[in-house]
Specification:
The structure is a single chain. With 237 residues, this protein is α+β, with helices and mostly antiparallel strands. The chain folds into two domains: 186 residues, Coagulation Factor XIII, Chain A, domain 1 (Distorted Sandwich); 47 residues, no CATH class. It is 16% helix and 25% strand. The protein contains four helices and ten strands; from the N terminus they run H-E-E-E-E-E-E-E-E-E-E-H-H-H. Strand 8 and strand 9 form a beta hairpin. The radius of gyration is 23 Å and the shape is globular. The structure holds 2-acetamido-2-deoxy-beta-D-glucopyranose (7 copies).
Length: 237
């Protein structure tokens, strides 16, 4: 009984998690959960289970707008967003070899609640990855990754062909398709080094004696951290 309640909850959480690329488009609807993708398509690397598009969309050689709805992320009011580019068509499924080229630094997304929420994020001028130059006619794939707080990630992609800036085939960007919803917030992600590579760790502070002392000084509260099996064993003796 408990098992089935748990399963239902997990399935409903996954079923509502999604990200939709609204500009410049997407490979297609991958908000699908079926026997092939029992956890939902969007969790599949690199593009949420969607194959490379034949219907590429056009995007400027100097970069342009990317808009998405980070979605109904039930139970997760925070996420981390990545926007990457993969070059060419020499990889699997006539897509890129990899998606290893970040276009913007990763950033934190703050949702309005732990419940599902609508809302749009638009980055109006996403540049090409550092030190890259594209020519009109080159193909590439833009990947948006939404990293959940539990460490799994949702993926959605759009396949593009580069064109000169101002080309009429580039979708018009305006306040209808490129805006930030007021109920979504953003945060910076900093990496704070706590131990340099190769640094000598001070053994005295991490010795067993120090750990025992810190347990003693916590006055018994540490019992809560005894692993369950060990705790049960202690009850028996
Ligand atoms: C490509 O075609 C698919 C399937 O019809 C559609 O869902 C998707 O939005 C299209 N993508 C673009 C970029 O036009
Ligand atoms: C699940 O959906 C995907 C995408 O539409 C499809 O390719 C696949 O065949 C489906 N699997 C089943 C078992 O229906
Ligand atoms: C990743 O893709 C780039 C561009 O296609 C390519 O130059 C590079 O060798 C690839 N890296 C790996 C590890 O395959
Ligand atoms: C880019 O993709 C289009 C559509 O799939 C294809 O016709 C074209 O040959 C590709 N261009 C290159 C340079 O691979
Ligand atoms: C924005 O551009 C889209 C697509 O061209 C168009 O449908 C929409 O009416 C435009 N909105 C405004 C406010 O101009
Ligand atoms: C939306 O917010 C992001 C992050 O602060 C910002 O980079 C971007 O320019 C904003 N988009 C618009 C359309 O103002
Ligand atoms: C190591 O830790 C001890 C106790 O905290 C301290 O007295 C000592 O200065 C530390 N040594 C180094 C090299 O940091």
């Amino acid at each position: 009984m408990l098992g089935s309640v748990f399963t239902t909850l997990v399935l409903s959480t996954l079923a509502t998690a999604h990200i939709i690329l609204t500009y410049p488009g997407w490979r297609g609807n991958n908000l699908i959960e079926n026997d092939t993708f029992p956890y939902g398509m969007q969790w599949m690397y690199p593009c949420g289970g969607m194959g490379t598009s034949r219907n590429r969309t056009y995007w400027p050689t100097l970069g342009g707008a990317i808009a998405f709805q980070p979605g109904w992320f039930q139970g997760h009011d925070k996420a981390t967003l990545y926007v990457n580019l993969g070059f060419g068509t020499d990889g699997p499924d006539n897509g890129p070899k990899n998606m290893s080229f970040p276009m913007v630094p990763p950033f934190g997304l703050l949702g309005p609640s732990k419940g599902p929420y609508p809302g749009t994020v638009c980055l109006p001028q996403v540049p090409l990855p550092a030190n890259t130059v594209m020519s009109p006619g080159d193909n590439a794939t833009i990947q948006v990754v939404e990293l959940a707080q539990h460490g799994a990630a949702l993926y959605s992609c759009v396949d593009i062909t580069f064109v000169e800036p101002g080309d009429p085939r580039v979708g018009h960007v305006n306040e209808t398709n490129c805006f930030n919803s007021t109920d979504l917030g953003f945060s910076d992600i900093y990496t704070i080094t706590t131990k340099e590579v190769g640094a000598i760790v001070n053994a005295t502070t991490t010795s067993a004696a120090a750990i025992v002392n810190s347990i003693r000084s916590s006055g018994g509260a540490w019992m809560g951290y005894v692993p369950l099996v060990l705790g049960a064993f202690w009850l028996l003796i």
